[in-house]
Amino acid sequence: MKARLWPIILIAAGFILSFAIPYFGLLDLYVQMILIYICINIILALSLNLINGYMGEFSVGHAGFMSAGAYISAIITVKCLSSASAAWLFPFAVIAGGVGAALLGLIVAIPSFRTRGDYLAIVTLAFNMIIKSVLENIDAVGGARGFLGMDKLTTLPVAFFWTLITIWVIRNFIYSNYGRGVLSIREDEIASDLMSVNTKQVKLLAFVISSFFAGVAGGLFAHLLQFINPRMFDIIKSTDILIMVYLGGIGSIAGSILGATVYTLLLEILRPLEIWRMVIMPLILIFLMLFRPRGIMGLKELTWFVPVLDRINSNRGVKGIRKWFS
Amino acid sequence: MGNRIIETDNLTVSYGSIAAVKVISFHVEQGEIVALIGANGAGKTSTLRALSGMTTYGGRVSFMGRDLRGVAAHKIVGMGMAHVPEGRGIFGNLTVLENLKLATWQRRDKKEVAADYDRIFNIFPRLKERRQQSAGTLSGGEQQMLAVGRALMSKGTMLLLDEPSMGLSPLLAQEIFSMLAELNRAGTTILLVEQNANMALRLADRCYVLETGIIVLEGTGKELIGNPQVKEAYLGT
Predict the structure, then answer these.
(1) Do residue A321 and residue B121 have CB atoms under 8 angstroms apart?
(2) How confident is the model at residue A317, as a pLDDT?
(3) Hey, of A194, A201, A204, which one would you mutate to test binding to chain B, going by the most B CBs within 10 A of its CB?
(4) What pTM was computed for the model?
(5) Apex CA A303: angle with CA A302 and CA A305, to 5°?
């Protein structure tokens, strides 16, 4: 019973803190900003982990989906809504950004039926480049100069809330029937087909969910910085997300949370080193890959993220099929 | 003439310009064990892949009277044809239970699924012991049991087996084969592809001998074991 209570207590404490910190000014603005960054990066890492970690595909254009979400939500709050209504309708703007990104994900998913591994990496890379050049050439959104005018709507509670939603959705998806289908594609796609898994449908769904949350992260990012330009969403950004996923450990929710947190913090802590930061950081990564090639968590999961019925030795046998899960 | 479950008519399978299967016509009747034997490259695996929709093919394949052209692989499984692929296709990082559960991906008959778990664990008690273990840590024989169990979980009434004896010691292979015989007695129709001709011929009701993509011989298992041509080519002296 205790084990089930702790996550609820932590979530409640997190919520109270996320409201209290900005309200009472418990931490200075810079630290608050980093906390929000961590939240956004967790969303990004988790969503990419779905494709790269759980499904075993290799997508490297995640910043492309993020940019779609960022631009769509920013256009909605700046051009379609008044400043007062934007504050209230911000969640819907973020969702709209996510939906836009998800539609793009649907388009990118189709080549993934035909190509795998390295080839899919090239396809997603190309997608990332295309979306960046398209944004650079649309003058209505500022072209290469970028787009601004957003209010700072991404506050700590908002970011925390979206992070929880992401964790909840992805965790429930992974442990659903579809989620098992995603895992089986990673393990052996042919066998998965032969086991009656509709692999096309599963891939489509995984891509849509993943790009939706990348879009959400983009929307939050745009309303945190209050300024976006296409260069922010280039290959480097995609690589950042990849690093967080592999640093934390593929196929693990706890891993993505850890990876995003550690990476974001390290980048900030090493900031005084200025240019040397970009020497130290890759070195840390190289050593990590040498000594822990599967990342910090490496396919393992914190028990809290595993549904009770799926836990090993959970002893919650009831009747019928459940008895085998004890 | 019994009830023909599988019937192929002039089946051909080509990879690019290479024809792996050149015109094969055969059938499997309800309740039979049929074996396809032949050396490497004879087209056995390609034939199975065509049957379960994993590759494009020429000619006609019908399953329980229904033409399978254009039917997606996962739908064919739903119709009751379960394929245990070459090398077993175990999901190594998933637990035994998860492996079995995956085979029920399309099934909505929860009660029968629960009964099927009981049935599989009855046939393969070893899987029950190891149900929480990740499948990659099982021994070769246990993995083969899991592969067969998984195929049965998909409500397969027709089993396609690709080299079930591969990588197993003779004793373990024997164990697997006697389990297959038992399954067959319980009503499962089996189409078996084997390199181990000796064991396959003993188990099978009927046999087809494949050579470079065509059927060169057919007959009952007993007939073929005595056949000098088969003896020389596959059984050794």
Answers:
(1) no
(2) 35
(3) A194
(4) 0.88
(5) 75
